[in-house]
Amino acid sequence: MARCVPRATLISTASFPKLVVPGRTNRVEASKSALFGRKLHALCRYDRRDAARPLVRTRVFAGQKEKELQVNVSVSIEQGLPEDHEISRIAELLRLNVRTALNLAFGGLKDSGGGFESAELSVILCNDEFMRKRNKESRDEDRAIGVVSKSKHVSGLKIPNVVLGDIVISVEMAARQAEQRGHTLLDEMRLLMVQGLLHLLRSDHEISKEATGEMEKEEERLLDSLGWKGKRMVASDAETHPKANEGKRWKKEGSLRLYKPKFKYVFCDMDGTLLNSKSQLSSTTARALKEASSRGVKIVIATGKARPAVMRVFKMVDLAGKDGIVSEFSPGVYLQGLLVYGIQGQEICKRNLDPNVCREACLYSLENKVPLIAFSKDRCSSLFDHPYVDAMHTVYHEPKAEIMPSVEQFLAAADIQKLVFMDTAEGVSTALRPYWSEATGDRATVVQTVPDMLELVPPGTSKGIGVKMLLDHLGITAKEIMAIGDGENDVEMLELAGLGICLSNGSEKTKAVANVIGASNDEDGAADAIYRYAL
User: Fold this and answer.
1) Beta carbons of 8 and 118 less than 8 angstroms apart
2) Which of 292, 296, 350, 301 is nearest to 327 (CA)?
3) Which of 211, 242, 259, 311 could lock 207 by a disulfide, CB 3.0 to 4.6 Å apart?
4) What is the pLDDT, as a whole number, of residue 155?
């Protein structure tokens, strides 16, 4: 059973001034409208217990000075729709739009001699599943359509109050129709609301061609008076029926941007992707991640960073913890795929570096005074203090490195998953990378994600392998994910994904395998990619 959901509080019932519609301007005259000259009748009964409880109930006044018609309007959001601020925003705008439309419509209704003093109308926003059930009950058609109107008025009763009934609108269907017709979602829902209102006022375009033509005229007149976008919606209503036009095909279900995301998962790199050149997660990118998560998209981090570093970054924008994007219980790929966490944060993979490679790296660091940092799960260690070592914590958010007094203690402290040398970009490219590419042989793999760092990781490991392992664990296919990255270590992940996006600041190798080249990390490229391709 549908119920009122917590986001109901987002719609305000603040000031609602008395609104009197002038006698000549911006209204549908009864003399010009055969529709408003008709009496209302009950199309079918509808049990409101199946509908959402109203988010708002407001009183609106319309009519001539000498006699005002009181109209009660409620707007509800059925619980099957996601908790999305965009839905709430449209519901609020639609509430105001219903009031405007009723001012016009009831001017004609009063002049028809109905003698009503007040009227009630309910608008329910729902998903396709809810609409399909309502349509099956009312019309015995097992399919979702854009709008269904359920009248509660019983003709012939001599009472001053009229209960118009319910206008039920499928937001998901409206989104698909809006995308096909080039409207905004709000435009399409306004059109559906007008069509629903016309049905409640006993204009049924499915009875005959004459009725269709009559409803088209009424629709056009009302839309013109309201100044809303869209014409001849009744005539195009057949497009929503699966059998109406066999030659036309809707876009795939996943293209419904607002409520059925194109991808179930988005795998994101951190440095150079989610983080800008200052190693910060911008407010724009944070909002995009939150928006995606609120719409059911799972954000999975795949990075060379340690998990505490990622959680520290997300905590700064209030997206860490149980109800955030990352936590100790969320899946993720860390330390270039050497640590992989699955469902409920369980560790499903850990790979350690060869101790002999670690010892050689320590000796090289001491002899050449090149800072070296070891990553051991959630902790870091180093052999001596250095500004670069401090920067790993203060700039890159990694755990503060513990300074070990000797090589032996450095090696004995904990299993080491990866080592990172830090130097100038020139030092890395001219000295460190050539030396260690040869020295490690098949005992380790050399990885470079940023110009001033060189990483040593176990052979046969990579971020891409970690991602594949996590997909298998979660039981999802590569086609179901979108991946965003920038570095050479993101190549496999982008090749694996259903859609791979490399930001414009990325390496040429990564751009070469990407499906899309996005904006740079300093231009919130990851946020733009999420809005464009994931939602």
Assistant:
1) no
2) 301
3) 211
4) 54
Environment class of 481 (CB within 10 Å of its CB; exposed 0-12, middle 13-18, buried 19+)? buried
Residue type, 237: D
- Distance between CA atoms of 286 and 94, rounded to whole angstroms? 28
Decide: 125 and 171 in contact? Cβ < 8 Å. Answer: yes
Measure CA 413 to chain center: 44
Residue 398 has a pLDDT of 95
Half-sphere exposure of 251 (CA within 13 A, CB side): 15
For the range 322-329, what are the long-range contacts, defined as Cβ-Cβ under 8 Å and sequence gap of 24 or more? 325/289, 325/290, 325/293, 325/299, 325/301, 326/299, 326/301
Cβ atoms of 356 and 338 within 8 Å: the answer is: no
The conformational region for residue 140 under phi > 0 = left, psi -120 to 50 = alpha, else beta, is left
pLDDT, residue 158, reads: 57
> Over the range 196-229, which residues count as b (16 or more CB within 10 Å of their CB) and which as e?
bbbbbbbbebeeeeeebebbbbbbbbbbebbebe
CB 214 within 8 A of CB 203: yes
User: What is the length of the chain?
Assistant: 535
pLDDT at 17: 32
Digit-coded pLDDT (tens) for 233-277:
444 443 333 333 333 332 333 333 445 678 989 999 999 999 999
Question: Tokens 């009831």 correspond to what residue?
Answer: 106
- Look-up of token digits 């499915």: 206
Return d(Cα 340, Cα 292) in angstroms, integer. 23
pLDDT at 270: 97
Please give the angle made by the CA atoms of 54, 58 and 63, to the nearest 5 degrees. 135
Closest CA to 106 of 160, 73, 69, 74: 69
Tell me the three state secondary structure of residue 115.
coil
Q: Can you tell me the distance from the alpha carbon of 527 to that of 103, in angstroms, rounded to the nearest whole number?
A: 42
**Angle at the Cα of 256 from the Cα atoms of 100 and 286, rounded to 5 degrees:** 90
SS3 category, 330 = coil
- Report the candidate in 54, 316, 260, 41 with the shortest Cα–Cα distance to residue 162: 41
Q: Which residues in the chain show pLDDT less than 50?
A: 1-66, 108-113, 203-207, 231-258
The residues with which 70 forms a beta bridge, in sequence order, are: 61, 118
> What are the b/e assignments for 278-295, b being 16+ CB within 10 Å?
ebbbbeebbbbbbbbbeb
Return left, alpha or beta for 279; rule: phi > 0 is left, psi -120 to 50 is alpha, else beta.
Answer: left
- The one-letter code for the residue type at 278 is K
DSSP 349-392: EE----HHHHHHHHHHHHHHT--EEEEETTEEEESS--HHHHHH
Which residues neighbour 507 within 8 Å (Cβ) at sequence distance 6 or greater?
486, 487, 488
Contacts 24+ apart (CB under 8 A), 216-224: 218/28, 218/33, 218/34, 218/35, 219/194, 219/195, 221/28, 221/32, 221/33, 222/28, 222/101, 222/104, 222/105, 222/194, 222/197, 222/198, 223/191, 223/194
